[in-house]
UniProtKB/TrEMBL annotation:
Lineage, top ranks: Bacteria, Pseudomonadati, Bacteroidota, Bacteroidia, Bacteroidales
Keyword list, A-Z: ATP-binding, Cytoplasm, Kinase, Nucleotide-binding, Transferase
Pfam families membership: Acetate_kinase
GO MF annotations in UniProt: butyrate kinase activity
NCBIfam families with a match to the protein in the record: butyr_kinase, PRK03011.1-5
EC number(s) given by UniProt: 2.7.2.7
Name assigned to this protein: Probable butyrate kinase
Swiss-Prot/TrEMBL catalytic activity: butanoate + ATP = butanoyl phosphate + ADP
Domain of life, source organism: Bacteria
Length: 355
């Protein structure tokens, strides 16, 4: 089975071609700020990015003939985890109905569908998008009935890492209790109980620890006062929640290598803010230990910042008392998407219907 994988990010489009479990192409197409500046909305980039994907396939001498195209899922309705066949309802919700944010992940299903319909007998999927919602009833309740808790998190990578860890120890994901922390541009921490993420934060919209690009949880009354201060527009304030927040707001950059170099050179402010991010992340991990009543088989750290020994060692120092801590640096998203599509093509799992 030949599978095309498409994973759009804010400044890149990652693509991969798999023959069964074997990758025969892995490539990241970088988009400059000038290239993207001409588009008001991210969904307007669809044709531009699709054409670059096709161009890269031609450059690599790979025929545009696939059994499936799978894209990174977007911010549609809250859904259960798994693989979904792209349908008209999903396309409509991505373009018009449910897009809460101008986020690049919304391009995944649009481009996958557009390429797949040009290929005979080719199916189009998404898998484990960031809106996967398996929260327990208790987790949904906030202190205001006007604002029930929702989750937007790194579902695809977290579930892939959970399954990988389970395979490595000879167990099933569904038999384990895990706390998984994705350390990326946003930070999501989830309590996985027997194969379901029963509690996790809204890592995009302002909840949990702050991160390189996200504000995380903020003092509510101060935020309301700021909204009515007249100093900022709604668009500017939303950027202060996601985009120009966290390390970016404090230190002027989201580049951890640059920040760590500044720390080595004696920058005390960079040290303080980085340590504060680690502190609040550890606190969130410990909170998920309470969700699982202390019955935690392992804590898994993943995402780009898990490459940093300093960050992972400091987290381990603070939360190692809860359970053994294991690191899986980087993201496993391309392989996870390919294997999800392959499982449907081979009949070992069934694609769900988006409604």
């Amino acid at each position: 089975m030949r599978i095309l994988v498409i994973n759009p990010g804010s400044t890149s489009t990652k693509i991969a071609v798999y023959e069964d479990e074997k990758p025969i192409l892995l490539h990241s197409i970088t988009h400059s700020a000038d290239e993207l500046a001409v588009y008001d909305a991210i969904t307007e980039q669809q044709d531009f990015r699709r054409n670059l994907v096709i161009k890269e396939l031609h450059r690599a001498n790979i025929p545009v003939k696939f059994d499936a195209v799978i894209g990174r899922g977007g911010l549609v309705k809250p859904i259960a985890g798994g693989v979904y066949e792209i349908n008209e309802q999903m396309l409509n919700d991505t373009l018009h109905g449910c897009v809460m944010h101008n986020h690049a992940c919304n391009l995944g299903c649009l481009i996958a569908h557009e390429i797949a319909i040009t290929i005979p007998n080719c199916r189009a999927f998404i898998a484990d998008p960031g809106v996967v919602d398996e929260l327990s009833p208790l987790a949904r309740i906030s202190g205001s009935p006007l604002m029930p808790r929702i989750c937007i998190w790194h579902a695809l990578n977290q579930r892939a890492i959970a399954r990988r860890y389970a395979r490595e120890i000879g167990k099933r994901y569904e038999d384990l209790n895990l706390i998984i922390c994705h350390l990326g541009g946003g930070i999501s921490v989830a309590a996985h109980e027997h194969g379901k993420a029963i509690d996790t934060n809204n890592a995009l919209d302002g909840e949990g620890p702050f991160s390189p690009e996200r504000a995380g949880s903020l003092p509510a009354a101060d935020l309301i006062r700021l909204c009515f201060s007249g100093k900022y527009t709604e668009k500017q304030l939303l950027k202060r929640i996601a985009g120009k927040a966290g390390l970016t707001a404090h230190l002027g950059t989201n580049n951890m290598k640059e920040i760590q170099e500044r720390i080595k050179n004696g920058d005390k402010q960079a040290q303080l803010i980085t340590d504060a991010m680690i502190y609040h992340t550890a606190k969130q991990i410990a909170a998920e230990g309470a969700v699982l009543c202390g019955n935690v088989d392992a804590i898994l750290l993943t995402g780009g910042m898990a490459h940093s020994d300093y960050i992972t060692n400091e987290l381990r120092r603070r939360i190692g008392y809860l359970a053994p801590v294991y690191c899986f640096p980087g993201e496993n998203e391309m392989e996870a998407l390919a294997l999800n599509a392959l499982s449907v093509l081979k009949g070992t799992s069934k694609a769900q219907i988006y409604q």
